[in-house]
Design a protein that fits this description.
It contains 24 helices and 29 strands. The protein has about 725 residues and is α/β, with parallel strands linked by helices. The protein folds into four domains: about 130 residues, no CATH class; about 280 residues, no CATH class; about 200 residues, Alpha-Beta Plaits (2-Layer Sandwich), CATH 3.30.70.1230; about 70 residues, no CATH class. Strand 22 and strand 23 form a beta hairpin.
Length: about 725
């Protein structure tokens, strides 16, 4: 048989096998997560889309909590609703369950005041919190509450006997109390769906069924209000793509088969106008007509944005985002007619098969210098097609799965050529040159000693990170749950270290040792380590959301950072090497991680690191200490944030008082130091360090230190 024909047949076989294998492995969660991440990158690459201009989010932020505390007083809430309505808001959505649920601690007078002011705002839509059991957690079973149905039905959409696959609530966990529900213009549920793989919010259940009625998602309820949709006219049908379509007045809203709406995020959290709850009240008192004019013809959503309250979740465009922004995006995409839907399966499969056949056959028949650029052109063409299709129509074609299929095709064809024509060495070399980081390869080639025993002395910045109370937590969770949680944690933390140009040295149980400055030199190593540490702490907060959802405990992380000379290289036995760093500078970083326990801090660095980054980070000086195993004192600092990050007024005032107290302490002005530290504590009551200095200064008032006292504190524990 003709040689080219045989090769072509093998190419077809490789293409079919590659597509089949790829389809199978992309049923696994890990590979699905890659596709999800590609989709997130697609949204970010598209950037801000066309969106409505009449959305205003009234935030329950730190400023509002500082002025009023939480839960906010109901008379203030009622006043706000009246102000918004009288300022011309089309509809007002209250994405906050606390003021709408009757509580025993709230007096009848306060409820009456709330309802009195509410009467001046007839266009208010309140949130309800239905409980929909998951496959893993069926939750508490309760009978249908006839009182809830009776009160809420006036705001529902009748199913009219239709049977669709919408999530079904077993009970309404939170809802407006009866007199408030009767006064409200409508309700919307605030149930969202965290992706089971990575916890990111990419879709919401459009309807939740309870007691034979549908309740729309919060953003949809506001969109129906803005478009004056008669809820009794809303219907649902199956569409040709195998999903569902909601018909509501002028809207035709596509959903997936399970009744979920893919959220088409308009942009980051700053895409919509925002104003603080307290600022609205202030504007009303000051008769600031210019500020209140922003509510004219607006859709207003009131929701908590302070990190201490409310629900915050990651989205494709933000590591952490208040849920009220999700509802705002749902409203926006309905009003703008912007919907996201997967490409028809037949179209997707046909395109992948055609591309796989082309790549496989070309790779077998053509030489490498021709097949590779042709394959790249095919991939680039597909990526351009997929991106432009999404940007123009909202239809999403898979990104990662086709690339895996094409890679398998190409790899199979190259392997076949190598095996049959004796070019295996050249093919493998070519593949490694394309996929291995060139900078690292060059470093190894230029310096062969990196793969030999021994090392070299270099300037490094070392970071040690450890989970607080891990042993106790592991005993409570059991081995299987602990391993799963630990793997998730180590993966996220390691990604951040690598993204910030660090090198993972080793994992010691739950601890991570990493360093900057080797194998490649890094002139910005201290700053990169600080940026990694801050991002690790923030990522841990994001992981808390996911862990809480799965019933796992919330953990804290301690980090120590130090810069200095250390020996780095491959060390170990001839048969087993470990690329690592050793030396006093490394040991000090490890000690500083433990010192956090003494001061109730999370991020500590030495003065060696501080002086390299002091103009680029926000820190506070902690103490002059001699750590365990050392004789020389070291000045330590708490890393708070990067210098270009905005800080609250409270943080600025706290640091000012703290540093004034520390300066007074160093000058032996004990009473002045106590006053300043007490002022710092009035801003941040849980600050252990301020309390510590107050105790020391109080002691020195009675028993002053010797004349040669230099403020050194000797640590007696690791």
């Amino acid at each position: 048989m003709n040689k080219k024909l045989i090769k072509t047949l093998f190419g077809i076989l490789f293409a079919i096998l590659s597509v089949g294998i790829t389809s199978l492995i992309f049923q696994l969660e890990f590979f699905q997560s890659l596709e999800h991440k590609a989709y997130d990158a697609l949204l970010r690459a598209r950037g801000e889309r066309t969106h409505t201009k009449n959305v205003v989010i009234v935030t329950i932020d730190e400023y509002s909590l500082k002025e009023m505390d939480y839960p906010l007083p109901r008379d203030k809430y009622g006043t706000l609703l009246a102000i918004l309505a009288q300022s011309g808001a089309v509809a007002i959505g209250v994405d906050d369950l606390f003021p709408t649920t009757r509580q025993d601690s709230i007096s009848q007078f306060e409820n009456d005041q709330f309802l009195f002011f509410h009467n001046y705002a007839p266009n208010v839509y309140h949130a309800i919190g239905p409980f929909v059991p998951s496959d893993d957690d069926q939750g508490e079973r309760r009978p249908i509450d006839p009182e809830a149905i009776k009160v809420l039905r006036q705001h529902s959409i009748p199913t009219n006997g239709a049977q669709f696959n919408f999530p079904r609530a077993t009970y309404i966990d939170e809802r407006p109390y009866d007199s408030l529900a009767n006064l409200a213009a409508g309700v919307g549920h605030i149930l969202i769906r965290q992706d089971s793989i990575d916890g990111i919010i990419r879709s919401v259940p459009f309807f939740v069924e309870y007691g034979g009625d549908y309740y729309p998602t919060f953003g949809a309820a506001l969109a129906f209000a803005a478009a004056q949709v008669n809820l009794d006219s809303v219907t649902v049908t199956e569409n040709e793509e195998g999903g569902l379509t909601v018909h509501a007045g002028q809207f035709e809203i596509p959903l997936d088969f399970h009744g979920y709406l893919q959220v088409d995020y308009a942009g980051g959290n700053d895409v919509y106008k925002q104003i603080s709850f307290q600022e609205v009240l202030d504007a009303f008192v000051k008769k600031d007509a210019a500020t209140l004019a922003m509510f004219k013809d607006a859709i207003v959503i009131i929701g908590p944005t302070a990190r201490s309250i409310g629900d915050h979740n990651p989205t494709p465009l933000s590591d952490i985002s208040p849920n009220c922004f999700v509802h705002a995006n749902v409203y926006d995409q309905i009003m703008m007619g912007k919907y996201i839907s997967p490409a028809p399966m037949n179209n997707q499969l046909l395109m992948v098969i055609v591309m796989a056949l082309l790549v496989s056959v070309i790779a077998i028949l053509l030489k490498l210098r021709w097949s590779f650029p042709v394959g790249v052109l095919i991939i680039a063409g597909y990526l351009f097609f997929a991106y432009s299709t999404f940007e123009n129509t909202g239809v999403v074609y898979s990104f990662v799965e086709p690339l895996f299929a094409l890679f398998f095709c190409y790899a199979s064809a190259m392997s076949y050529n190598a095996a049959t024509e004796g070019r295996q060495k050249a093919q493998i070399k070519g593949m490694f040159e394309k996929y291995v980081d060139k900078a690292v390869v060059k470093q190894i080639i230029d310096n062969p000693s990196l793969v030999k025993l021994g090392g070299e002395e270099r300037d490094l910045t070392t970071l040690f990170a450890d989970i607080e109370g891990f042993t106790r937590m592991a005993e409570q969770m059991g081995p299987q749950n602990t391993v799963g949680m630990l793997n998730s944690y180590l993966t996220e933390m390691s990604n951040i270290i690598i993204e910030n140009h660090g090198t993972i040295d080793k994992y010691i149980g739950d601890a991570i040792m990493s360093f900057w400055g080797a194998p490649l030199s890094d002139s910005d190593q201290a700053y990169n380590a600080c940026a990694a540490a801050i991002n690790m702490q923030r990522k841990l907060l994001a992981l808390h959301t996911k862990w809480i959802h799965f019933g796992r405990p919330v953990v804290n992380q301690r980090i120590g950072i130090n810069s200095g000379r250390a020996v780095v290289g491959n060390m170990g036995a001839e048969t087993r090497l470990n690329y690592t760093a050793i030396g006093d500078a490394v040991n000090l970083a490890s000690r500083l991680e433990g010192v956090n326990k003494e001061y109730g801090t999370r991020l500590l660095m030495s003065d060696n690191t501080y002086y390299k980054v002091k103009d680029r980070v926000l820190c506070r000086e902690m103490d002059l200490v001699v750590v365990m195993g050392k004789t020389e004192p070291v000045r330590i600092y708490e890393l708070i944030a990067l210098a270009d990050e905005v800080q609250t007024d409270a943080t600025k005032k706290f640091l000012e008082s703290y540093h004034n107290g520390l300066e007074a302490y160093k000058k032996r002005a004990w009473k002045s130091a106590i006053d300043q530290f007490q002022h710092a504590l009035s801003i941040r009551r849980d600050d252990i360090v301020s309390n510590l200095y107050i105790q020391r200064a109080t002691m020195f008032v009675d028993v002053p230190p010797p004349d040669d006292w230099n403020g050194v504190f000797v640590m007696t524990k690791k």
